[in-house]
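Cross-check.
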Amino acid sequence: MPKVHQLASPDDELDSLQISWPVVPTEASVKETRDRVGGELRAWGYRLTSDKESEIKLIVSELVTNALVHAPRHDIGFAMWIYKPGQLVVEVQDRGAHAPVAHAGMDEDTFGRGMTLVEGLALSWGVGYPGSGKCVYATIAITDAALGAPRSA
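Predicted model, tokenized:
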């Protein structure tokens, strides 16, 4: 699955820090995806603090949940890569046509705040339309005090 958002890394050395996989729509899909994201970042040498890992996993959870709830329950894909030093991009592709909207829910609402959380935690987020369906992405800072430097190779 290619990166749809097409934020090409300006640093050729970062090309190896990317991965994608299909998301099989099951009750465990969200947990499996967010757990794998944490594992992949560790495999790339990033030492995440608990707070930073939770922030990244929350963003991933919201994007995957939106795809599972609002798009047909097939052909969902996930990709992540280091865009440039200090910036992680995560994206979820699905066949849905409607873009998510960040809005504040009412106090009694049990849903509807996901993209507002993403908007507050990510450096940026957006939607692309690669042909059939959409791609929702978020760019996440990974250089702040909540993250140790990557291990040297």
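The mean pLDDT is 80. The helical segments are 29-43, 50-70, 114-121. Passed to J.P. for a second look.
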